Structure formats: C-alpha cells, structure tokens
Amino acid sequence: MDTARDFRNLLAIFILGLALSAVCLAFTPLWQVPDEPQHYQLARLVADLGRWPTLSDVWGARQLERDVYASLVRHRFWEIRAHRTPPPSLWADTAPDVLLPPIAASPGYYMLAAGALRLVGSAGVDAQLRVLRGLSVLLGLAELLLVFGLARAVFPREPHLQAATLCFVAFLPMRAYMTAGANSDTLAALLGGAALCAMAAWVDRALTPARGLALGLLVAASLLTKRTTLFLVPTGALFLLLNRRASATAGQRRAAWALGAGIAALGAGALVAAWALARPPLAATGQAWPYPGASPDGLLGIRAEWLAHVFSAEAWTPTALVGYARALGIAFASFWGAFGWLTVRLGIGWYAALAGLTGTALAGLVRALHRARQRLPRAQALVAGAALLAVLQIVGAAIAQGIPQQGRYLLPAIGPIACCLVAGWAYWLPASARRRLPLLVGGALLLLNAVAWGIYIWPAFHGPA
Fold this sequence. Notes:
The chain is 69% helix and 1% strand. The protein has helices spanning 4-27, 36-49, 55-60, 62-74, 77-82, 96-99, 108-119, 125-154, 159-171, 173-178, 185-202, 209-223, 232-250, 254-278, 304-310, 318-336, 348-372, 378-401, 414-427, 437-462; strands at 338-339, 344-345. The mean pLDDT is 92.
C-alpha cells in the first residue's frame, strides 16, 4: 500500500474491527461467550497457585467455586443459556464439561491470562472476567496485523484482495464475538496467524536456521495453546516441500535447507515434549476423572480411541454418515455466526444465503485455477493447502470423536480461509469492479452483524425475562 488513501482505508478497517469487538464486549452478558466459566476458573487457579493445577486443586477451590457461582447467578447465566433456574451449587446438576476448569487443556492461554489476573490483584470476579475479555480484544487486534501481513505475501500486487481479506477477518460476526470473550481461541488464532504469516513470507526465501527455529517455536506455541492448531503440522510440512523447491531454484545448498528444516521440527517437537514431561499428574491414583471427552494422560488432550474409531466399521455406517453431514452443517453455521453457547442462531434463510455465497467463492476459485493454466505462486498454494487442511481437521475430528465440531475451531486458519474466499469472489467481478471488493465484503459483513445483533442476539440476551 503506497498511497495515503490506501493507508486511511486500512486504518478505517482496523478501527471498525476494534469497534465491533468492543460492541460485542460491552453488550454480551458476562459468561455468555462459549466456555468462559471454564477458561476463567483455570486461569484463576494458575494465578492463585503459581503452577498448573491438579484435580485435587479443583475440588479444593471452594471459595473460587462460590465466587463464580454467585456471579453466574447474578448475571442470569442459566436463564439465558438454558432457560432454566440455577442449580443449588456451581457443579451440581450441570454437565462437568460445562463448568469445571479444563485442566487437561493446553497451557498457553492460561499462563497469559493468569499474568493478566495477577495485575488486577484482588478485584472481584466480574472485574477479572472483564480484564480477560479486554485481553482477547487486544489479541484480536494484533491478529489483524498478521492477517494483513499474510494477505500482502499472498497477493503482493493486488491491494484490493489484501484489503478484502482484512475486511473479511475483521468483520466476520463469529470472530468478532469470540474476540470479546475470555477464551483460548483468540490466542490460538493469533499464534496460528503468526506461524502462517511467517510461512507465507518465507516460502520463497532460503530457509535459514534462524527462520527454521522461529517457525518451529511458533507452531509449538500454537499447539500449546489449543489443539485446533494441529493443522499447522501438515501445513508446516507443505511449507518445507514448497520451500525446498524454491531453495533449489535459488541455488541454496541442500544441506543448508535440511539444517533449517531439522531445526524447525526440533523446535516444535522439543517444546511440546517439554510440556508433556513437565506437567504434573492431573489425577491421583484411583481418583475418578470427571471430564468426558478428555484424558488426564493424553498428549494435547488427544485420546487414542479417537484415532482407532476412524478405522472402525461403526464410523462409516449410513447413520454415522448422516451424522457427519449434520455436523458439517453445525460447523458451517457456527463459523459465520451461532452466538451464546451456540444457542442463538441466525434464521435458516441467512445460512442458505451464506452457503450460496460460499459456494460461489469456491466455484470462482476453481475456475480461476483452471483458467490460469500455470503453476500457482507458492504463497497462494500454501494458504490454499492450509485452508483445506483446517477444514479436513474439523471433518476428521467429527468422525473421530463422534460429535459435531464448532466453526470457531477454524479461527486459527481464518487468514487462509479469507484469502481463498475473496479470491473466489474476485473471479466473478469484472476487472473494473474488483477495486470495490473490500467495500462489498466489508459492507455485507457489517450488515450481517447488524442483522445478527438487531434480530437475534439482543432479544436473546436482553429481551423479556
């Protein structure tokens, strides 16, 4: 971007994106962003204990339990989320995976959040939760900078596609909603975006040991924040393959590339292994494990039986296939916007329109690739592969676990997904109109936000009791 006008337009996108997150923060009742009670409690335990908590620490945190329960009652958590009266205590008559702190989760976000909580000292639960929400807003703003860096690497001579990509990410309703809540998704999206931005920027450059180490550490940090970033591992392999070809063209010695690739793999693996070895045993011998769908011993919370289920006959029955189709519909809807604890959804007509727009973008992308009849630039091949791998991860997780996956699990890949969609939409526009693509994308998504809040979210959260 070279002109003052371009800079002003980009600044306006950043300001509007920040304002949209701030609106979501201000008007979403406390605890009504998915998993906020769990995220807050684990961050608070880490802050109070100064170490990673065990199951005994969870059962012993009676004052924390009382404080959180009082705040949930005060803010009508059960009435808004489930249209029911509060239970007699925090964990009574409520599914344990809804309100127990997720001690089997990856540690990255909770270490950062615990530091933020220590800064506010003895402030009440409500104030502490608002601090964590503010942290998410700042992480979301930083992510937009990385998305723009990614878009510049992918579309170096097409500023309208750069701006349209940034508009899509900044104004996507579900992303704006998640950046206004206390959750690990925001940090996972930031670190995943950093890894992808670095890969796109370096895919055509020599892979030095320093770059290899940086990439390895970024991938490891992402994995240690949320396992929804696992797609970065095969994306990293794709990067190494593409970069090896670029290095051969540039005349880099094969041994130098191998050294950089080895350091990248070592940096990623060593950091994850270090956490696996350093984490204390989560449950004592014979202690009942109350978390369904999680394992006290699995690496990054992955269970061996999930992987085995993919190869079982039960996973491929007609009934199971119908369930997977339904799961994909849930993931699609909750990528664009399913608010609260996925209980506040848009009307079916809106999802049908969004499906049509998504299909139009994908058709345009395929047609553009077919008509080009030339090798795709490496940065574009990388983001296309990353977007595909992230979607396949969602599909694979639904098959392995037997439960639908939420669309917000795609947020670590939001940059590549946005690049693919805007490139597909651009194909259908005449060359003279493509400069208006940022306005079209941004305007449509801001309208969708207005519809979501005016017709669906506000009545659900602030309508008659």
